[in-house]
Amino acid sequence: LSLALGTIASVLPKDFKWGTATAAFQVEGAWNVSGRGQCIWDYFQSFPGRIYMNETAHVADDLYHRYPQDIQIMNTLGIPNLRVSISWTRILPTGDVNNVNQAGVDFYNQLFDALLAAGITPWVTLFHWDLPQTYNNFTNQSTWLNPDVANKFNDYADFCFNTFGNKIKHWITMNEIQTFTWIGYGVGTHAPGRCSPSWGSWCAEIGGGGNSSTEPYIAAHNALIAHALAVQTYRNKYQKAQGGKIGMTISSAYAEPWNISEPQDHNAVDVAVAFQYGWFGDPQVFGHYPKEMTDRITGGRLPAFNESMSALLKGSYDFLGLNYYTSSYVHYTGVPGDNFGNDGRFWSSATNATGHLIGPYADSTWLNVYPPGFRKILRWIKNRYNDPHIYVFENGVSCPGESQLPPALALNDTFRMNYVFDHIMEMVDAVLHDKVKVKGYFLWSLLDNFEWTDGFNVRFGITYVDYNNNLTRTIKDSGYMYQNLIQSLGETTGSSENSIGLSERF
Ligand code: PNW
Question: Entry's SUPFAM superfamilies (predicted)?
Answer without folding.
Answer: (Trans)glycosidases
